[in-house]
Amino acid sequence: MSEQDIVDTSGLSGSFVDNYYSLPDNVEWDDWVKAGAILQTIHKNINFWIGDWILFGESHFPETYSQAILLTGKSDTTLRNCAWVSSVFPPEQRRDLSFTHHFEVAGMDNIQDRDHLLDKAEEEEWSSLYLRKMRYDELGQTLPVMPEPTVLELRSDMQRAVFDICEAASELSGMKDQSFRVPFDWGYVEMKVVRED
């Protein structure tokens, strides 16, 4: 996304370059306040929005959505958390609380207890850390439990074949954090090469 796309989409004035937001010297007070409100809204909701985006991709582009999620630059765990919490709390069930508040109770089995804690957090303006403490103190619930993805154990000959493919890919120049497809008659296998240097 270009700098101009960000300005056009957000309605913010100024320029965006990587991790830097530069406001023009002549920005008016009202525009400066509006920019702060927009940035806070983005900060508060971005993980829900990414989660909703991933869930949409899973249902509409199941064969290729994984390529697009690499664009976020977020870790696999963060992306799975975003999708998980967004699936546990559809938009109509989300409170005027942060994503982290929702994450803290998403793994609870008892929906009434979960809703009670979120209601109290909203009414009494609890921080997400205090919500975690209350979840533990009142209900004895420990850390949220996100379902683990299914991991298949490969036979040794298949592991060797995957290793050989990854070795060949890593020898190619520029193959850092790249994904690619290996086509077959019956479809394809998608792989992601992540170099840890």
What is the element layout, followed by pairings?
Blueprint: H1 3-10, E1 15-17, E2 20-22, H2 29-60, H3 65-69, H4 76-88, H5 99-105, H6 111-124, H7 128-139, H8 156-171, E3 178-184, E4 187-193
Antiparallel strand pairs: 1-2, 3-4
Helix pairs in contact: 2-4, 5-7, 6-7
What would you note in describing this structure?
- By secondary structure, this protein is mainly alpha-helical.
- The protein has three domains: 1-88, no CATH class; 90-145, no CATH class; 156-193, no CATH class.
- The protein contains eight helices and four strands.
Q: In which order are the strands of the major sheet placed?
A: 1-2
Q: Calculate the terminal CA-CA distance, rounded to whole Å.
A: 27 Å
One letter per element, helices H and strands E, the order comes to: HEEHHHHHHHEE
List the quaternary state of the chains. Answer: single chain
Give the overall form: flat
For the record, the count of structural domains works out to: 3
Mean pLDDT over the full residue set? 80
The percent range for helix content is 40-55%
Number of strands: 4
Helical/strand content category: mainly alpha
Strand content: 5-15%
